[in-house]
Write a sequence for this structure.
C-alpha cells in the first residue's frame, strides 16, 4: 500500500497479533452485546495503515480463516464482506487523502454492495430468492421473540398482539431491509471512523484523516429533494414504488441525523465542554427516540436555518 507510514513503525509479535485478537474479540462479543460488533473493522484498519497492505491483508485473511474454523463459511463470508472490506475501504480512503464524504461513502458502499451481491447469490442458490429468504428469516425471528416473551411471562395482551401482527411485521421488515442494512453499514463506518480518529489522536499514531472537519459538515443541499419526493411517494405510491420511497426516506433521514449530530458537535466544540459533558450529551441523544427525531429534524431544517451560520462565514471568507 503506497504511502504507508514508515516512521517509528511499531514492531513485535504482540503488536502484530493485537489487531487479530481485538477484531475477533469485538466480532464474537457482539453475540452477547451486539453494539460491540461495530468496532470489528477498526483494528484491521490499524493493521493496514500502520503495518502496510501485505501484513494487513494477511491478518485479515488469517482472521477470516479463524472465523471459518470456529463458525463456518457463513460467518467467515460475513466477516470478510463486512469488517474486512470496510477496513480496506477506510485504509484506501486514508491513503488517497479522500474527503470526509468520499471516505464514509467508500466505507459504507463497498461492503454493503459486496454483501448484497453475496446475499442475493446465496439466496438464489439455497432458496427461491432474496425476498422469500428474508421473509422466512423474519417470520422465524418473530416466532422466537413471541416465544421468549411467552416464557418470560409477559403481558398476555402483548403476546396476543405479537401473534396477530407477526406476519405484517415480518413483511414490513422485508420491505425496509435495503434501507436498514444501508443505514447499518453507514453507522458502522461512521463509528469506526470516529474511533480511529479518537484513538490516533490520543496515542499519536498519526493515522487520522487529514483535512476532515466534522463540525462544519453538511449534506448536499439537493438531498432535501430526496426527502420531499420520497415522502410524497410514501403517501401516494404503492407496491414497489412505495417500498423504494420508504427505503430512500429512511436513508436520507439517517444522513440528516448525521448532519444534526454535526451541529451538536459544532456547538460542543465551540463551548469547549469537557469530555464527560460531551459523552453525557451524546448518550442522552442516542438513548431517547424523541431526541433522535429532534436532532434529525435539526439536520434537515439546517438547509434553510443554517444554525452554524456557515454560509455567512463562507461568504465573508472566514474559516
Amino acid at each position: 500500500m503506497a504511502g504507508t507510514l514508515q516512521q517509528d513503525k511499531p514492531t513485535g509479535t504482540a503488536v502484530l497479533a493485537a489487531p487479530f485478537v481485538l477484531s475477533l474479540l469485538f466480532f464474537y462479543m457482539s453475540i452477547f452485546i451486539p453494539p460491540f460488533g461495530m468496532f470489528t473493522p477498526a483494528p484491521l484498519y490499524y493493521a493496514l495503515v500502520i503495518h502496510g497492505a501485505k501484513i494487513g491483508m494477511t491478518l485479515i485473511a488469517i482472521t477470516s480463516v479463524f472465523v471459518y474454523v470456529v463458525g463456518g463459511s457463513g460467518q467467515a463470508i460475513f466477516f470478510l464482506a463486512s469488517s474486512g472490506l470496510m477496513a480496506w475501504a477506510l485504509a484506501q480512503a486514508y491513503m488517497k487523502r479522500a474527503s470526509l464524504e468520499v471516505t464514509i461513502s467508500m466505507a459504507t458502499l463497498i461492503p454493503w454492495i459486496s454483501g448484497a451481491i453475496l446475499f442475493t447469490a446465496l439466496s438464489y442458490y439455497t432458496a427461491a430468492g432474496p425476498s422469500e429468504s428474508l421473509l422466512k428469516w423474519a417470520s422465524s425471528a418473530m416466532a422466537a421473540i413471541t416465544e421468549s416473551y411467552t416464557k418470560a411471562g409477559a403481558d398476555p395482551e402483548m403476546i396476543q398482539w405479537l401473534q396477530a401482527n407477526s406476519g405484517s411485521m415480518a413483511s414490513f421488515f422485508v420491505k425496509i431491509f435495503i434501507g436498514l442494512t444501508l443505514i447499518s453499514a453507514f453507522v458502522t463506518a461512521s463509528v469506526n471512523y470516529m474511533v480511529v480518529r479518537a484513538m490516533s489522536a490520543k496515542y499519536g499514531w498519526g493515522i487520522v484523516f487529514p483535512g476532515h472537519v466534522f463540525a462544519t459538515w453538511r449534506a448536499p443541499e439537493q438531498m432535501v429533494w430526496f426527502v420531499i419526493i420520497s415522502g410524497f411517494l410514501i403517501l401516494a405510491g404503492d407496491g414497489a414504488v412505495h417500498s423504494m420511497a420508504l427505503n430512500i426516506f429512511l436513508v436520507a433521514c439517517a444522513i440528516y441525523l448525521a448532519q444534526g449530530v454535526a451541529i451538536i458537535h459544532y456547538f460542543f466544540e465551540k463551548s469547549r465542554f469537557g469530555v464527560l459533558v460531551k459523552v453525557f450529551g451524546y448518550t442522552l441523544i442516542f438513548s431517547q427516540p424523541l431526541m433522535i427525531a429532534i436532532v434529525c429534524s435539526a439536520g434537515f431544517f439546517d438547509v434553510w436555518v443554517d444554525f452554524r451560520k456557515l454560509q455567512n462565514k463562507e461568504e465573508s471568507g472566514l474559516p
Q: What stands out?
A: The CA atoms of residues 34 and 168 lie 25 Å apart. The chain has a mean pLDDT of 87. Residues 213-314 form one domain.
